[in-house]
Design brief:
Number of strands: 17
Distance between the termini: 18 Å
Number of helices: 6
Shape: globular
Helix content: under 10%
Order of helices and strands: EEEEEEEEEEEHHHEHEEHEHEE
Length: 462
């Protein structure tokens, strides 16, 4: 926690699933509706609650607490432990009686708090389709509020005062789903622009997190989210560092590949947009916008030409792996990204593997606030500003913990399951490192499962 320096901290997003036993028969896993008060944490810890719709007040029936953030109360670093945490579950709201036998699972996801503040989007037109103020003005966009943004076909002023200018020009990524260069449109106030305070997952969804999610689904839902079939890796064996195995019924597993190497902490690839949306809805999070992606990387700093997420143009890709598949997996060289497979890494690595143990942002390869792997490892699936569907995304609404019966997210204000309105940013293990402002595929819709794509979520701060 560095609240007195740059105003941010790490937190655990904690949520609860339960199932009941009736006559010896196990029910389906469901999301626990938590109260807004009645929770407790030990001295030294802080707890804040998160509802589904952050623009509305708590209501146990229509806007329940779906999870809580737990974090340090005072500035400090290193391992943080909070014992004897108590959460208040309104089980009667969920139809559970005091006489029933209930099995409970508690989940936690490491998050980074990003405080409210203005920032630059774009890198002086040095990256493909990056944001700039005018056709003749390469200054980046200045995002100074969450108010609606009017993007116009303007030449721009060329004053260089990017944080004071109010001009926004659009450059296409040339995909069929993207608006044309010079298109005029409005980014609504409800679209998350990265200015308002938020939480973002510190790392990409890991294979252990994915299996834990998958194993709470119904059989029908599991079939929809099965990445081991022909739509994904088409194997139950270790493939491009994905170790998920599923027999077609029951629980998915991460088989031991020898010496305890289960790949539990390796980033989960082969995820489609529908897969990501399902995981985020189930966990009470939401997708990130491409403006939030740039904010997490750049933070308060001015744009640097050709910069990566760590604020510099220099990069060293991992060329080998030590302790492969173990919790201590790391690059075998002093790397700050997982990119460019011809350097020797064939697949994603442990989430944050290049950051742990490093003391500087550049050597650790993380964003301004400590979010890891924004450049490389796996493509970040984001919501684009480049088409009408993307711009209709409303960041106030988060997952409620429940999927539809088919296993899809059912949040109506998110891009649909085909990723119309979505795209990718940040590059992956298979490509050379991609700059923070590079937008070649920012509005490129695809429903496919790629071995280079993962998942990461966020929440608008309480």
């Amino acid at each position: 926690r560095h609240a007195t320096v740059i105003g941010n901290w790490d937190a655990a997003w904690v949520f609860v699933k339960y199932r009941t036993t009736t006559g010896g028969t196990l029910g389906n896993w469901k999301h626990a509706s938590l109260n807004n008060t009645g929770h407790s944490v030990p001295s030294g810890a802080t707890l804040t609650t998160g509802v589904v719709d952050t623009s509305s007040a708590f209501n146990i029936s229509t806007n329940p607490v779906v999870g809580v953030f737990i974090y340090r109360s005072a500035d400090g670093g290193g391992t943080f432990t909070a014992n004897n945490v108590s959460l208040s579950w309104n089980y009667s709201q969920d139809g559970v009686t005091g006489s029933e036998t209930v099995e409970i699972r508690v989940f936690a996801i490491e998050m980074v708090y990003i405080p409210q503040g203005g920032f630059f989007a774009g890198d002086n037109a040095n990256s493909t389709a990056s944001f700039k103020q005018g056709s003749s003005d390469n200054d980046p966009w200045w995002i100074g509020s969450e108010n609606a943004i009017s993007v116009t076909n303007s030449a721009g002023t060329g004053t260089g005062l990017a944080e004071k200018a109010a001009e926004y020009y659009y450059v296409t990524d040339d995909s069929p789903d993207d608006d044309a260069t010079g298109a005029a449109f409005t980014i609504p106030a409800a679209f998350p622009k990265g200015y308002k305070a938020s939480y973002m997952m510190k790392g990409e969804v890991s294979q252990g997190q994915w299996v834990a999610f998958f194993n709470t689904l119904t059989a029908t839902q599991q079939s929809a989210r099965d990445i081991t079939d022909s739509s994904g890796k088409n194997s139950d064996n270790l493939s491009l560092r994905n170790n998920v195995s599923w027999s077609g019924s029951g629980d998915a597993t991460l088989p031991d590949q020898g010496g305890g190497a289960t790949y539990e902490y390796v980033a989960m690839n082969y995820l489609s947009w529908a897969d990501q949306a399902a995981y985020l809805d189930w966990s009470g999070l939401r997708p990130i916008s491409e403006l939030e992606y740039e904010r997490a990387g750049r933070g308060l700093q001015r744009a640097v030409n050709h910069e990566f997420a760590w604020g510099h143009w220099s990069q060293t890709a991992a060329t080998s792996i030590t302790n492969a598949g173990l919790p201590t997996e790391a690059p075998g060289n002093a790397a700050n990204c997982v990119a460019n497979d011809n350097a020797g890494v064939q697949g994603p690595m442990r989430v944050g593997s290049v950051a742990y143990g490093d003391t500087t942002r550049i050597s650790g390869g993380f964003g301004y606030y400590g979010v890891a792997d924004l450049t490389g490892n796996l493509w970040e699936q984001i919501v684009t500003v480049g088409n009408t569907t993307g711009r209709s995304y409303d960041g106030r609404y988060h997952g409620n913990g429940a999927l539809d019966s088919s296993g899809d997210s059912n949040v109506s204000t998110w891009p649909d399951t085909s990723r119309t309105g979505g795209g990718v940013r940040g590059g992956c293990w298979k490509w050379p490192p991609i700059g923070l402002s590079h937008r070649s595929y920012a509005a490129s819709a695809s429903a496919a499962r790629y071995n280079t794509a993962g998942a990461r979520g966020a929440r608008t701060a309480p």
